[in-house]
Amino acid sequence: MITIYKSKSDILPEQELIILNDVYFNKKTVELLDDRADDIIQEIDRAVRIGSYRIQSRFHNVILDIDRLSTGCKTVLNIMYNPDKIFCIKECGENAIDLIYGLDTGLVFSDYPTISFEMDKVQVVSNGEILAMDDYEQLKEWWRYEQ
Q1: Given strand 86-88, what is the order of strands in its sheet?
Q2: What does the H/E/C string look like for the chain?
Q3: Partners of 123 in the β-ladder
């Protein structure tokens, strides 16, 4: 299950918060991709990974550099391949958010509610405390209150 941070003050000094998902993906995560990435790329962008640095777009099957993936797709892949880093999910669309909430592990940040209707169970970090939540309304309520 993912762990959600809503306040930068809950992020420990040794943890790294990544705000620019596109840049991080293009410089770091792209080198880590393997077959696990293929389903994510297909599901979010409806593209096919061709080799390490190319995708076949759903638009007329045009071949593009992999840096042309959507920010949401890059964010999901960043979370999957870098489980020790915290990634901002504010730029993600609903399809990417649904996948993020279904991941087995991952650390995410958003200072406003970004919740999947498909959520099952998540952990939240608030004032240094880690709480488990398995209800959409409960999570929405947690986000509503300021620390």
Answers
A1: 17-18, 86-88, 107-109, 3-5, 122-126, 129-133
A2: CCEEECCHHHCCCCCCEECCHHHHHHHCHHHHCCCHHHHHHHHHHCCEEECCCEEECCCCCCEEEHHHCCHHHHHHHHHHHCCCCEEECCCCCHHHHHHHHCCCCCEEECCCCCCCCCCCCEEEEECCEEEEECCHHHHHHHHHCCC
A3: 3, 132
pLDDT tens string 78-135? 999 999 999 999 999 999 999 999 999 999 999 999 999 989 999 999 988 999 999 9
4-60 residue pLDDT tens? 999 999 999 999 999 999 999 999 999 999 999 999 999 999 999 998 888 988 888
Q: Which residues pair with 88 in a beta bridge?
A: 109
Closest among 9, 23, 13 to 87, alpha carbons compared: 23
- What lies within 8 Å, CB to CB, of 14 at 6+ separation is none
- The token pair at 70 is 């959507």
